[in-house]
């Protein structure tokens, strides 16, 4: 037995360390996902070749074909921030668990596009739109849109199942798997509640900054930044002060990230964002940007801006008119300043932690990017 342990230890030492820098972590995650998804695709092919071709393969292509992998990078940095190693079987298991967040993202985007009626994603037809187009091209029976949405729902469900599988397969080798499982459960529930709040606010035509921030906190801040960091830290068995600091950073920077996204939706460059400008306005979403614009217009007595912004979402004005009104009353500037302030607050929370140099620089750079709200 002792000889076997010595052999295992030697093999552990021979394994090259895993990367820390953002782009290198991203590449490692993509390579891991490719191997994993190719294996899952083969399983589906054995069950049914048409399902593999028409349902699973497009999901695999979508997952591998775009995205910045920032959630998995943040989860990996959370692991390292809590003392996780960069080499050995546990480090490799931790990276696999971090990669599972990318499949959760594929699930969320696929279902989100159905609910929003979005025809484009990452510069290409969204999942439900692509399946709708395929229905028409192949002359299938039935209603194309319903078929497309049904196929996309299945694709999202498959992505969520694969995310759970990848994560729990990795957890078997990690010290903090029990706590990390709880974080994963909370993360998935928060995504659903945040999406509910988003849908309900649209249906009720709500225009409340407080409600918009609550949805942002659950749907984006938690899912994009706070919980990935928390997941990684939990896998490493992080002490409570570390968890508190990382979650505080994640909440602040995550909200800043969403506010920046609100601005990019209205004022960004479609070639950069991969979607048409003004989707949130056309759908009548209750964003902080819109709520602030209404408040500022009312305070300034700008009746024309009030008329335009109140009409958003129902036979509303052109996106260009709404954008001009938001700019004129100062909503763009105010939300941009909030982005910067939240990002700075998040960076200050990192001062409580003794982080590896590359992790500290990476988290600070990520926060600064979230705080730069003037792109476009």
UniProtKB/TrEMBL annotation:
<feature type="compositionally biased region" description="Basic and acidic residues">
    <location>
        <begin position="130"/>
        <end position="140"/>
    </location>
</feature>
<dbReference type="InterPro" id="IPR033749">
    <property type="entry name" value="Polyprenyl_synt_CS"/>
</dbReference>
<feature type="region of interest" description="Disordered">
    <location>
        <begin position="119"/>
        <end position="141"/>
    </location>
</feature>
<dbReference type="InterPro" id="IPR000092">
    <property type="entry name" value="Polyprenyl_synt"/>
</dbReference>
<dbReference type="GO" id="GO:0008299">
    <property type="term" value="P:isoprenoid biosynthetic process"/>
</dbReference>
<keyword id="KW-0479">Metal-binding</keyword>
<feature type="region of interest" description="Disordered">
    <location>
        <begin position="1"/>
        <end position="20"/>
    </location>
</feature>
<dbReference type="Pfam" id="PF00348">
    <property type="entry name" value="polyprenyl_synt"/>
</dbReference>
<keyword id="KW-0460">Magnesium</keyword>
<dbReference type="GO" id="GO:0046872">
    <property type="term" value="F:metal ion binding"/>
</dbReference>
<protein>
    <submittedName>
        <fullName>Polyprenyl synthetase family protein</fullName>
    </submittedName>
</protein>
<comment type="similarity">
    <text>Belongs to the FPP/GGPP synthase family.</text>
</comment>
<dbReference type="InterPro" id="IPR008949">
    <property type="entry name" value="Isoprenoid_synthase_dom_sf"/>
</dbReference>
<feature type="compositionally biased region" description="Basic and acidic residues">
    <location>
        <begin position="9"/>
        <end position="20"/>
    </location>
</feature>
<keyword id="KW-0808">Transferase</keyword>
<dbReference type="GO" id="GO:0004659">
    <property type="term" value="F:prenyltransferase activity"/>
</dbReference>
